[in-house]
From TrEMBL:
<dbReference type="GO" id="GO:0033897">
    <property type="term" value="F:ribonuclease T2 activity"/>
</dbReference>
<feature type="compositionally biased region" description="Pro residues">
    <location>
        <begin position="233"/>
        <end position="242"/>
    </location>
</feature>
<feature type="active site">
    <location>
        <position position="114"/>
    </location>
</feature>
<dbReference type="GO" id="GO:0005576">
    <property type="term" value="C:extracellular region"/>
</dbReference>
<keyword id="KW-0458">Lysosome</keyword>
<dbReference type="GO" id="GO:0005788">
    <property type="term" value="C:endoplasmic reticulum lumen"/>
</dbReference>
<feature type="signal peptide">
    <location>
        <begin position="1"/>
        <end position="24"/>
    </location>
</feature>
<feature type="region of interest" description="Disordered">
    <location>
        <begin position="212"/>
        <end position="242"/>
    </location>
</feature>
<dbReference type="GO" id="GO:0016787">
    <property type="term" value="F:hydrolase activity"/>
</dbReference>
<dbReference type="InterPro" id="IPR033697">
    <property type="entry name" value="Ribonuclease_T2_eukaryotic"/>
</dbReference>
<dbReference type="InterPro" id="IPR001568">
    <property type="entry name" value="RNase_T2-like"/>
</dbReference>
<dbReference type="GO" id="GO:0043202">
    <property type="term" value="C:lysosomal lumen"/>
</dbReference>
<comment type="similarity">
    <text>Belongs to the RNase T2 family.</text>
</comment>
<keyword id="KW-0255">Endonuclease</keyword>
<dbReference type="GO" id="GO:0003723">
    <property type="term" value="F:RNA binding"/>
</dbReference>
<keyword id="KW-0456">Lyase</keyword>
<dbReference type="InterPro" id="IPR036430">
    <property type="entry name" value="RNase_T2-like_sf"/>
</dbReference>
Amino acid sequence: MRPAALRGALLGCLCLALLCLGGADRRLRDRHEWKKLILVQHWPETVCEEVQKDCRDPPNYWTIHGLWPDSSENCNGSWKFNLKEIQDLLPEMKEYWPDLIHLFPNRSSFWNHEWRKHGTCAAQVDALNSQRKYFGRTLELYRELDLNSVLLKLGIKPSVNYYQVADFKDALARVYRVIPKIHCLPPSQDEEVQTIGQIELCLTKQDQKLRNCTEPGQEPPHKKEVCEDGPVFYPPPKKAKH
């Protein structure tokens, strides 16, 4: 092959490679793209009942499960969790974001899991682009939205008597002015009805303002986990039953 032809062939191969890399890069970005954040809070008594593991003295208030981008996970495996970056947040983290079920070797392993799975994706947003910002902003949102106080003020308290799922939906929609998502455990042998387990409040991506989790009439994803209309058990802490 003549030198000029050889140079042309090599240039063509290089351009093709760059195009392929560009396409792969776009596909990677698309895979990690997301549209909204979900502040996920769970009811400790239900969590402990679900996993049936060592669940010592669960709190009697709603705690944080995580702050999750809606359609992206594990965005940067090289961005390791560093507990030192959130030292000043630890008192609040231990109180409001505990590892309820002790599945991990130590308390910070739960936060490590949440950072690597969800925080590295949330970091697309300037307000969440470090571990300190991600965990700090999540705690801020937890305090600002104050789900525990909202439910108590509306007269919705853990009880041996059943509520209706609509009691939760209507009350939360009235206060927050958005449609939340409520998850339940299906009926078990011990309980004849579903048990409330998790409440999700959805937020806009850039400024973390409340928004609907689903639009009116739209079926939510993962419908099997969402509470069915009808009675629901909101279990009181077992210590309070005696």
